[in-house]
Amino acid sequence: xxxxxxxxxxxxxxxxxxxxxxxxxxxxxxxxxxxxxxxxxxxxxxxxxxxxxxxxxxxxxxxxxxxxxxxxxxxxxxxxxxxxxxxxxxxxxxxxxxxxxxxxxxxxxxxxxxxxxxxxxxxxxxxxxxxxxx
Length: 134
Description:
Keywords: Coiled coil. Among the domains are: about 45-95; about 100-134, no CATH class. The chain is built from four helices and two strands. It has helices at about 30-95, 105-110, 110-115, 120-130; strands at about 5, 10. The protein has a two-stranded antiparallel ribbon. The protein is rod-shaped.
């Protein structure tokens, strides 16, 4: 009998059966079962450890991101305070001659309109100090 199956010269994939082949029963010992269970448990423990490490890394990353956000907020607050102080100093130094208007409006105005701007009132000073945009 031929050891390979051939049809029109084409080799077929798959198991090659021989005429003398007999079914073989596999016998599993108890110790082998224990070994396989230990292997499975070992893999499970490894995956569990990896997951725990990933969670720790995730927590550390979250903490770093939160610290960075807080630092950015603090920096922004410091910058806002500096701007407020600068505006207040400009208001004090200008006294009665102060004129306040937004940059967009000012750039759109004609020369005549720029000269005729109204003076700052106490209400406008209060609006400026409350940090509202004009």
